[in-house]
Amino acid sequence: MGSDSVSILTGNENKPTPISTKEEDELPNSSSTALLSFSTDFSNSPPKPVTSSVLFISLVLSASIALAAAIAFGFLFFTSSSSASSLKSDSTGVISRSLSKLKTPVVLLISSDGFRFGYQFKTDTPNIDRLIKNGTEAELGLIPVFPTLTFPNHYSIVTGLYPAYHGIINNYFSDPLTGDQFNMASHEPKWWLGEPLWETVVNHGLKASTYFWPGSEVNKGTWNCPKDYCMFYNGSVPFEERVDTVLNYFDLPSDEIPSFMTLYFEDPDHQGHKVGPDDPQITEAVVEIDKLIGRLIRGLEERGVFEDVNIIMVGDHGMVGTCDKKLIFLDDLVKWIEIPKEWVQSYSPLLAIRPPPGYSPKDIVAKMNEGLKSGNVKNGEYLRIYLKEELPSRLHYSASDRIPPIIGLIEEGFKVEQKRSKRQECGGAHGYDNAFFSMRTIFIAHGPQFARGRKVPSFENIQIYNLVTSILNIEGAPNNGTMSFAKNILLPSH
């Protein structure tokens, strides 16, 4: 399992931009004109006598015509107004739609790993398009947290916390106190801080199910990864089988259907790393993901619950192309300072260095930047070294001892390696600054609590936790998101 224009989120910048729910639905202006016009100009003709019976008949006829016209106009006005009102109600969604079969709200959270925003435009995606057309979409994509890596972002989505607070600060890292190593198969609770959604849901007496979501196999708090409701990761399980397993939950008695479900696909991240974001293999992978969404929709429709389920489809990050000509070598800095490989916890796209005791991180940062700015290090201008506490505040990447003291931010598409080699290859990567548009992914939501055909501004994925707890009407754990965001996105309840 494995990423925008520059973000301007700083300080309290995680507060969402208010989302207007007002939509203009104006009817064309029309002037009031007479339906019938009677001329009183008889030119120069002399007046003719009019009998009382003829005058009476004329008056009756005129009145009848005027009455008929008034009725017709009133009917047209009423139907037009009703139609306009219906259109406006359907487009903005005044209130959430009632459940037709399910007794309580259900949220299905789907992750398509590495689904870069824009992939949906590469080819026909009729099923994803259906969710977008009849649901709510982040118009310019979902913003991942930094670093834009799989495990930090998946766990931020389900905890509402930045990595510095939920503890999963990288896909691989070490505990500075014990020296213990974390990897993507580490299931000890000590690594996984915060309260993930499945634990929150169970705390409120509801059921939850997880299918391969990072962190879901960890026995933590009230969550013990129950049999048949929690799948241990096995990448060889066919995607179709994963979809069918989720669908089978809806065949259970109503009180046993999980209120919260997760579903995970490794694609198109798998292809993106091998060939980059622009290869035809990506298009093929997107087609397959769309077919899986179609399979899910059909299964829910067959069970009569498609319109009842709140589906939230996201990715964890985007993807950018990389090639060997965009390399920076730490050994090229030896004239200024030697950086032994034992100091380096990760090279790319996030350079993380933890020097041993006795070395000054501040001095190391100064010497590295001196070399990089000298013009004598190939591609040195594309790497900047920081003390973690001096990183841009919008990254929220300093408040944890697990984060090494020295962090290097690498320009989009570049990689850092220890020394030169003859290897020549191109592919794709993520993990870069989340301000890069290439790191954005998707947010598509469909269901009774989401307006149809609505576009919302981009937002960080830490907001999704409160979105889910609001739909389920349960109280969440403290997190870095805002409750106002959920209120702005969701339709008000009945």
TrEMBL record:
Residues 1-20 have a biased composition (Polar residues). SUPFAM superfamilies: Alkaline phosphatase-like. It comes from Rehmannia glutinosa. Pfam families: Phosphodiest. Residues 1-28 are annotated as: Disordered. Keywords: Membrane, Transmembrane, Transmembrane helix. The keyword Membrane applies. This is Uncharacterized protein. The chain crosses the membrane at residues 54-78.
